[in-house]
Amino acid sequence: MTMFGTLRTPRNLVFGAGQRAALPTFVNMLGKRALIVTDERLASDHTFAAMVDGIRTLGVQVQIFPGTIAELPASCIAEGVAAGRSFGADVVIGIGGGSCIDAAKVIALLLTHGGKAADYYGEFKVPGPVLPLIAVPTTSGTGSEVTPVAVIADPDRAVKVGIASPHLLPHTAICDPELTYSCPPSLTAISGADALTHALEAFTTARRQLTHQIVHEHVFVGKNILSDHYALFAISHIASSLKAAYDDGANIVARERLMLGATAAGLAFGTAGTAAAHAIQYPVGALTHTPHGAGVAVMMPYVMEFNRSYARADMAAVAGALGLETEGMSEDERAGAAIDAVADLFASIGIPRTIADLGVSRDQLPIVAEQAMGATRLIKNNPRPLDLQSMTSLVAAAFGGDRERLRA
To answer: Which domain of life is it from (predicted)?
Structure first.
């Protein structure tokens, strides 16, 4: 097989405890009027205030927009754009969880190119560079600081929608694990499970037919040698740190490894893409109003089981990255052990076992299956082809907690 790899990454990626102190100099290099996109809780945090003071010390004017709302409704995007436009922002900084960083991406896009978010839904719809973006995550989860996609909730659509373009990649990402120390166990669990799902789906996603234009034909190009490297790296770090960080938020080593793994997972799926677990979470999340990370994590063991016969070698490799003892096992047994280990890890940090536990009712299953099939940018990445019938079976298994029925 011809070796092929590509990465879509920020120009600068800085990782390490205390590295938020590098933020002011990066901002000063890019602009003199900085719009900071965050949420209400962070806007009143003393560590956040210290970062803002550091930026102002270099003579950069700052406008804080604290109106980001979880799951990112379109209304808060419009408010952020209005704030940035009246201020005359020439650089945008997202500080917070994935919603804050995604909001910063879309606000920078609309400040540059105008229109409304719906004008850019899909892939390659952004016509050119956006205002310089800096991303500073405060959770170990979405990996949005290193990805070319932003996902928002549109009131005119039943499910969340994505804007995917290399132009949405931040110029600079600063990943400081100290900013995650205050994350409560529930947020640590949900965001960390989201990150592990990103890595698992990126590593097992479909490998596309190689063309000389593949990077221009797809934002997410499918499985490749470079995304595989980051995916396995992420799986290893997250699997060894997630439970420890959940149990003890003061465990500095676990916090560092978890954030490093989450960022690596972002590098993996930001190039390769995600698949069925994310496609199903969109309608599940819309129906139940549960956190994105919880929804994708619930689905992941079922999706792995569904895909097992089409990605057996990859799942066997996942067992190794998870640190499982698999000597003497067949490839299929190693794949099965990996699926069991992922399910057990998620259970140990309080992730529900079924989509019924999330609040999906039996009569909603046809809606979930139909709307999940509408997420074509995700469905096309799944290693096992999906149609409405097979999607219906997958969703039913996740509702009833029956992984065994998915074994092909």
So the answer is: Bacteria
Q: Does residue 351 contact residue 301 with C-beta atoms inside 8 Å?
A: no
DSSP string for residues in 251-314? -HHHHHHHHHHHHHHHHHHHHH---HHHHHHHHHHHHH---HHHHHHHHHHHHHHHHGGGSHHH
Across 184-254, where does the E strand assignment appear? none
Indicate the pLDDT class of residue 1, thresholds 50, 70 and 90: low
Helix (H) or strand (E) segment spanning residue 34? strand 33-37
**Torsions phi, psi for 269 (to 5 deg):** -80, -20
Sort residue 183 into left (φ over 0), alpha (ψ -120 to 50) or beta: beta
User: How far is CA 329 from its chain centroid?
Assistant: 32
Q: Is 219 helix (H, G, I), strand (E, B) or coil?
A: coil
Backbone angles phi and psi of 151, in degrees to 5: -120, 130
Bridge partners (DSSP) of residue 122 are 163
Residues 266 and 145 sit within 8 Å (Cβ to Cβ): yes
**Separation CA 357–CA 32 (nearest Å):** 49
Report the CATH fold assignment for 185-406: Dehydroquinate synthase-like, alpha domain (1.20.1090)
d(CA 364, CA 362): 5
Q: What are the pLDDT digits (tens) for 12-48? A: 999 999 999 999 999 999 999 999 999 999 999 999 9
Instruction: Provide the pLDDT confidence category of residue 156 given band limits of 50, 70 and 90.
Output: confident
125-154 as b/e: b if 16+ CB within 10 A: ebeebbbbbbbbbbbbbbbbbbbbbbbbbb
- Of 19-23, 70-74, 294-298, which gets the smallest average pLDDT? 70-74
Per-residue pLDDT at 213 exceeds 70: yes
Report the pLDDT value the prediction gives residue 68, as an integer from 0 to 100: 95
The closest alpha carbon to 92, from 18, 175, 83, belongs to: 83
Domain ranges of the chain: 12-180, 185-406
Taking 80 as the threshold, does the pLDDT of residue 159 lie above it? no
Q: Is the pLDDT of residue 408 over 80?
A: no
The β-bridge partners of 136 are 95
Q: In this structure, which amino acid lies at residue 178?
A: E
Instruction: Calculate mean pLDDT across residues 90-101.
Output: 96
CB 100 within 8 A of CB 152: no
Work out the pLDDT band at 75, boundaries 50, 70, 90: confident
